[in-house]
Write a structure and sequence with these properties.
This protein has 3 helices and 3 strands. The protein is an alpha+beta fold. The chain has one domain (9-81): Metal Transport, Frataxin, Chain A, CATH 3.30.920.30.
Length: 82
């Protein structure tokens, strides 16, 4: 299994919008997103800092409720279109 990519908060926000999440609110440097099927997550946008690996893994597994391999495939498609 490949390693988790180093992703900044802004890039993760764009990726989540790419897979169907919509911004429902912003409070300070944290953006709350929701999908049509009810999944909800919060992404911290702290200048140009990379998200910690543990937080990224938590967002993928618990908030997005997808497997890591599915995430890698979706993220690769997102990067190609970018």
């Amino acid at each position: 299994m490949p390693k988790l990519p180093a992703i900044q908060g802004k890039e993760l926000l764009k990726f989540l919008q790419y897979i169907g999440f919509e911004i429902i609110r912003t409070r300070g440097s944290h953006v709350r997103l929701k999908s049509n099927d009810g999944r909800v997550t919060t992404v911290p946008i702290h200048s140009n800092k990379v998200l910690p690996k543990g937080l990224l893994r938590k967002i993928i597994r618990e908030d997005l409720k997808i497997e890591l391999e599915d995430f890698f495939n979706l993220y690769a498609d997102f990067k190609k279109e970018k």
